[in-house]
Amino acid sequence: MRCVRFCVLLIVVSVATTAEDLVPIRFVDRTAAAGIVFKHENARSPERYLIETMAAGAAWIDFDNDGKLDLYLINSAPTKVFQPRTPLRNALYRNNGDGTFTDVTVKAGVAATGIFGMGAAVGDYDNDGLPGSVRDRLP
């Protein structure tokens, strides 16, 4: 009986996904409208150092425990072979709950200016029931 249900499900799925039933997906860039203004710099050089290949990161974390996922973005930093035109920093955007975000990086103290970010992870690493974040970086 289980096999029959599975086979019927497969037939229904395959019938519902014919070329005529497919609707084209259209993506729209809403970052600026959402209040997210962030540009990642990868510190690219002709030498292709290891840190350049591992740069950047992003993490969704409810940093203020309001039940909405906030966005933390990781950036690179100046190196011996890369000098950005403007100072680079990480960015933390608080979710306003209406499709927009507010930059709270400075207030939260997580800009990490001058530190070459290489990723981010979120988890309850100290078992207190709250999310914590870990940033992989080079000083």
Structure commentary:
The structure is a single chain. This protein has 139 residues and is α+β, with helices and mostly antiparallel strands. The chain is 17% helix and 24% strand. It has three helices and six strands; from the N terminus they run ααββββαββ. It has helices at residues 2-16, 50-53, 105-108; strands spanning 57-61, 70-74, 91-95, 101-103, 116-123, 132-138. The strands form two sheets. Strands 1-2-3-4 form a four-stranded antiparallel β-sheet. A two-stranded antiparallel ribbon has the order 5-6. The longest helix has 15 residues, at 2-16. The radius of gyration is 21 Å and the shape is globular.
List the helices and strands and how they pair.
Blueprint: H1 2-16, H2 50-53, E1 57-61, E2 70-74, E3 91-95, E4 101-103, H3 105-108, E5 116-123, E6 132-138
Antiparallel strand pairs: 1-2, 2-3, 3-4, 5-6
Strand content: 15-25%
Name the poorly predicted regions.
Answer: 1-13
> How does the overall form come out from the CA principal axes?
globular
Query: What is the total tally of β strands?
Result: 6
Largest beta-sheet characterization: 4 strands, antiparallel
Order of helices and strands: HHEEEEHEE
* Spatial strand sequence of the major β-sheet: 1-2-3-4
Number of helices, counting only DSSP H or I runs of 4 residues or more: 3
Radius of gyration: 21 Å
Q: Give the overall pLDDT as a whole number.
A: 81
| Range of helix content | 10-25%
**How far is the first residue's CA from the last residue's CA?**
61 Å
Based on secondary structure, the structural category is alpha+beta
